[in-house]
Predict the structure.
Amino acid sequence: MLPQLSHQQTLEPVYLAFLDALELSEFEGDIDKRYSARLVQATDNSVYQFLPQGVIYPKDQADLSLLLTLAAKPDFRGVTFSPRGGGTGTNGQSLTHGLIVDLSRYFNKVLEINAEEGWARVQTGVVKDAFNDALRPHGFFFSPDLSTSNRATLGGMINTDASGAGSLVYGKTSDHVLGLISVLIDGSVLTTAPVSLAELDNNNANSNPLGLEISNIIAKVCRDKRELIERQFPKLNRFLTGYDLKHVWNDALTQFDLSRILTGSEGTLAFITEAKVSLTPLPNSRVMVNIKYDSFESALRHAPALVTAQATVVETVDSKVLNLAREDIIWHSVSEHIQAVPNKVIEGLNMVEFAGDEQTVADKVTRLEATLKQQLETEACGIVGFQITADKPSIEQIYAMRKKAVGLLGATKGSRKPIAFAEDTAVPPENLADFIMEFRALLDGYQLQYGMFGHVDAGVLHVRPALDMCDEHDEKLLKTISDQVAALTLKYGGLMWGEHGKGVRGEYGPAVFGDELYGVLEQIKGLFDPHNRLNPGKLVAPKEAGPLMFNVDSAKRGSFDRQIPINVRQAFPDVMNCNGNGLCFNYSSYSPMCPSFKVTGERIHSPKGRTSLMREWLRLLEAEGVDVNALAKSKPLGWLQRAQNTIKSQQEYDYSHEVMESLLGCLACKSCSSQCPVKVDVPKFRAQFFDIYYKRYLRPAKDYLVAGIEDVLPLMASMPKLINLASQHRLSQWAIEKTIGYVDSPALSVPTLKQRLHGHSSRGYDLEA
């Protein structure tokens, strides 16, 4: 029978003392110590899992300053923090064993839009697509484009220096940052923006004394080492993310901007709370050309020619991603724009977009169309066909398909799933095809399946090898492949991380930066965070702190999942198949998934949250020696014993109650089963859980009422006025709601249908009406 799962990882004393002190202070935000809330924040869009000590949601900048000021007390020096936004990181960027400080709940306002000057001020918890919704009426958009734009926050974009489609034209996030407001580890507020050399020399760069010291030291170091920095950094559109030593000074060394150090720092230097960003005018005209190829290699090798055609965006996907999209509901919206070619197999696709003023776009498209027709006739470049669309909604639908493809890879059949860990390599575009061919040979050597898609115009390709993280051999293989890919990118003059930040991959930093410049990174980290308390273990540590505590081999979700027996995993496939992509966190009210999360804003009430809690429930049952499958077939405890357990549950902890709290909010609307890329079906495993849970505990009284109402309806119908008097009176409605939780009892018909039909002949009566 279902045991009482009293096991939960209790908070370490220093963290418990800190959170208790914070509760007693003037802190106005939310503090969540629940095991369920911690579990949901233990994962992101990566393979990693680090259980935090608690989750804090500050209401405003004053709250954030207060908690960091409190943390500066000697008693709390052991407390560490990590900022978190949308949780879309693919390399454990925001995961921590310390405290999560989630800015997405309250720091979500667009503060100011200056359409005349083309900039906006925004809090960093704002979701990217929500920001663009606010900008659209003014004729602007925030151009760095992400596949996770409907749930990724501006703070996450700034902290990873994110980019995406069209970065050759639109640049990275850091290219649009005009200024930042941050809170430092001592609770003080730092304002950063470009300053002239004269302002810097006159000590006017910042009013914050710590900020002033940091600015002066970093400015001097980066100026003195300018020649080495220029020589060491790869010449890429996707330049080094994090601690950007190169762009902290402009080319003429006349302007200094400390914001460039903060963008891409992944929460290791400060909490960024507000940003002033430049905006991009919405183009008057957009045209997309979808070019189909006989092989993925042909698509890659043709990409440089498309860049020279002055395309705004050149995106590519391979046949695996295309085939997955064809099997998904989203294909219906794009199929007419990517039609099959008779007697040809499409093995690769380049999506080429031109955006700008109408005449310029038309001229570019006309020239490209003429070239493509000629190449198609001569069977050059592996082109088997192309289609042109100038319909803006259709273009958006094609991009939506491409974005969803990221999650669709997780729907691959079998235990091995394409996963993110070496998925954002960047090399010079002219080297991309050769690099990818060698990359493919590497994966083929291990007999692995994989999907590929990306931004070929910038030399960035997302490659996701299929591995089974419940298999110890595959877990070790992940590290082996990661090391080999890191070396391969250096061979081709590129980077292991070109778009998604470093996260646990900070271990590859010394090889990229070199000993001398890596020492500068250590110095910078020490200036901002001398005691290594901000997202410790990622990117770099102060020199005296020792080696990084996280690396590619850090604890993964699969190491917990494999503690669940295979037959149990097979009995709960929807629980195990969730890959953490987080599409269920979509901010848009037009998205049908997931109503309970949209209303509550609580991640435990999302499909991803519910699968996370169920995973842990299954793991804990196995730890208790309970066979879940046998339990599902067993008979429930007697009514008296279940009643006793229910009464005791008010005083005794049982993790099963936290799972129940999460699942009770599910409306069983089934939107997850169609909208989720991996088709997670929450109502299905919710029913499985309810069946087992209620073998130990009583159901709510209203369940028994609803279950028995059909049996008593004939009796109630015999005295409808009396029943209505009892059920519809305000006092009785209040009593029913308070005692058994039943609301809106329907009134019985008076007179009843039988009474209304009395004396009527059935002849000629339309019974179906």
In short: The longest strand covers residues 285-293.
